[in-house]
Amino acid sequence: MRKITAGLFIALDGVVENPQDWHFPYFNEEMASAVDSQLGAADTLLLGRKTYEGFAGAWPEREAAGDVDAEMAKKLGDARKIVVTHQDLTFTWRNSEVLKGDLAEAVAALKDEPGDAPIGISGSVSVVRQLLELGLLDELHLLVHPIAVRKGLRLFEETDAALPLQLLSSNTFETGVVHLVYAKAAAEGTEGYEYAKQFLPQED
C-alpha cells in the first residue's frame, strides 16, 4: 500500500495561511532538504484547488526560467497531480487531473495502486484535515517556525472532538525551525491526574 505524506509550513500559533509572507527568513538548506524528502520524493501529488492554482501559476514558469529552483519545478511538473475540487478546472500544467468520486474511496484506491513512491500533499489544509479524520494520512510533516503570526487560517479547526497524534520524528534546524513528523494515534489517552501525579518531584 502506498504512503500519503503531507507537508505544511506552520507558525507557533498554528497559522498555516500565506506562509510566503513569513516563512522565507527561515528557509535554509535543512528546510530545502526536508521539503525535497517529503514532496520531491513523491511521484503523485494530491492537492486542494487553491494550492494547485498557486502551484500551477508559479512552478511552470520557474521550470522554464531554468534558475536554481528549476529542478524542483521539473519534479513537480513531471509528477501526476490530482486536484480535490468540485469546480470545473481548465488545466494548463501537464499531468493534471481532477479526483473523481468520493474522497475517501478515491484516496483509498490511490493508496492501493502499485508503486513504492509516496503520494505527496503540500498545503491543501482542507484535504489534510479530512484525510487525518479518515485515517488515510500516513505522515504529517510540520515545519514549525519560531514566529507567532497571530492572524490567518490555522491547521486545526475548533471542534468538540480531540485528534490524538503520534510523534514519529523530530529535528531542529539552525534557524530554530522544528521539523515534526506525526501520524494519527490509534486512540486518545485516558489517564487522568491520579496517573500523572506519580511523576511529580518528590521530597526526600
TrEMBL record:
Residues 2-178 form the Bacterial bifunctional deaminase-reductase C-terminal domain. It comes from Nocardia vinacea. This is Dihydrofolate reductase family protein. Gene3D superfamilies: Dihydrofolate Reductase, subunit A. Pfam families: RibD_C.
